[in-house]
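The authors assume throughout that readers already know how a fold can be written as discrete tokens. For illustration, here is how one protein appears when written out as sequence plus structure tokens.
>
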Amino acid sequence: MQSSSSSVNSKPLRKVIIPVAGLGTRVLPASKAIPKEMLPVVDKPVIQHVVEEAAAAGFTDIILVSRSGKSAIEDHFDVHYELEAELARKNKDAILASVQSTLPAGVNISSVRQAKALGLGHAVLCAAPLIGDEDFAVILPDMLIPTPAKQESDLSQMVAAYKAHGCGQIMVEAVPEDKVERYGIVDCNGESPAAGECADIIGMVEKPKPADAPSNLSINGRYILPARVMELLVDTQPGAGNEIQLTDAMANLIAEGGKLMAYTMCSKSYDCGNKAGFLEANIVYGLEHPETKDSLRALLANII
């Protein structure tokens, strides 16, 4: 059920934080020397899919929260003069265009360091100097959310909800009840908004036991947050896993009278932070890619 709020948010929304400092332990040994965000889904690394998603939703400033050993991510979005010159010399125009468009037009990328792995909330707080007093988005690079052909992405729809309702939005997805302890779970006071709809959040909890979960609506790695959340993170104490949780700061925002809404996604997410989700994403994206869809479909039919 949608909120009856008629306020319209006219604040600029242009900055998105992407935390990329994780070790990628769930996909070892593949991530031993290569950042997990650089693992390819078909012909693009995971991080490029996420940056393109953000750009398509109107974000122009990408802030990577990184650490040592992750320079390959920044290099991927930089100019590679030697490679481009060689492709141009060999008249490989299509490949050259793909190399030159790794960073969408009009998008800027900057990065800050997270010296210690102290949780998602801490990673977001590391970007505070670049956020200032603006509302901002957070995208987790592990989660890929494909957009069906000729449809608007879930992130774009969530941006529209943010502007229409004048408050922060959290993307959610229903999960089996026996898996709620893997996620942050929202409480919409018994409401379960339909796909593409949103409802007020009255509370949330990080990785609850099934018996303690207020719903089965999991936070799905896409957030649009008011600037106040960044201020609250400064005083947020370590919570679940002895880490500074973004969920706790958002819960504190609600407790002090702030407003957040849960936006239920229309598509389906694929967690590329684990082996099964990574393989699923490659199959789903591979079945849409013009160079791979026919051979992959034939292979799957043969296997089945």
Summary: Residues 1-7 have pLDDT under 50 and may be disordered. DSSP finds eleven helices and 14 strands in the chain. The domain at 15-25+34-303 is CATH 3.90.550.10 (Spore Coat Polysaccharide Biosynthesis Protein SpsA; Chain A). The CA atoms of residues 232 and 252 lie 7 Å apart.
